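User: I've been trying to design a sequence by hand for this structure and keep getting stuck. Would you show me what you'd pick, starting by listing the structure so we're on the same page?

Assistant: Good idea, let's start from the same input. This is the structure you sent:
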């Protein structure tokens, strides 16, 4: 990952309230829809799930409550600290077995040791294709035969749809961001407005399948999670 991108993403998650995002009015649809999709394909517990780029752990805690052994790997120091504090605040709560700082391209799991892998962040925060393929191949390495990886991406028109929802096309700086997203799929936020997100890559639909297959996966399903808002896909 380019050093500029790394710094920008770290700075974003150092201040953005990510721990509240999926419980917000706009985040609940993403969370509930994703849970439905995951349960459609995930084997019954007990099973081992690696939550790569899992933030503060909403999916790890949820799956742990269902009887899965979950392990969260997250590059943001702040988000890991929030997750650990949540674990300590309620000793009786089902929780991830491990929570570690880590990199999607270098996982600590042994080969073929996980029944499923969640990647609900790496594929859009890794802005270079080689880095995304590296992360996908690493997930493929740790996945057991017959296991599934669930990966989220963002569609290249997501900023445009978001601008329609919030009326931000009146902001010329956001207009430039939208135009670049559609043309290059490389999302950058040169402003101080945290609502304009951070460095990311926004996919075309065909690219998603290509990257998954180049990393050794057979795509089982390519599904929309949200409509007019933040577009995504799960596999």
């Amino acid at each position: 990952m380019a050093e500029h991108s790394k710094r920008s993403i770290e700075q974003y998650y150092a201040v953005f309230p990510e721990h509240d995002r999926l419980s917000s009015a706009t985040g609940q649809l993403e969370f509930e829809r994703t849970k439905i999709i995951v349960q459609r394909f995930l084997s019954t517990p007990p099973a081992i799930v690696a939550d790569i780029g899992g933030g503060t752990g909403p999916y790890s805690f949820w799956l742990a409550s269902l009887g899965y052994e979950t392990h969260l790997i997250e590059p943001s120091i702040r988000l890991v600290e929030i997750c650990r504090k949540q674990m300590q605040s309620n000793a009786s709560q089902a929780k991830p077995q491990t929570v570690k700082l880590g990199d999607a391209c270098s996982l600590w799991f042994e080969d073929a040791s996980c029944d499923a892998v969640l990647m609900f962040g790496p594929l859009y925060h890794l802005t270079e294709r080689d880095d995304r393929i590296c992360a996908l191949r690493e997930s493929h390495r740790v996945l057991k035969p017959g296991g599934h990886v669930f990966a989220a991406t963002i569609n290249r028109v997501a900023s445009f749809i978001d601008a329609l929802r919030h009326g931000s096309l009146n902001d010329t700086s956001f207009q430039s961001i939208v135009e670049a997203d559609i043309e290059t799929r490389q999302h950058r936020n040169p402003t101080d407005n945290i609502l304009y997100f951070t460095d990311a890559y926004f996919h075309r639909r065909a690219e998603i399948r290509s990257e998954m297959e180049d990393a050794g996966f057979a795509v089982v399903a390519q599904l929309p999670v949200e409509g007019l808002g933040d577009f995504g896909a799960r596999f």
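That's my pick for every position. To get oriented when you compare it with your attempt: The radius of gyration is 17 Å. Confidence is low (pLDDT under 50) at residues 229-235.
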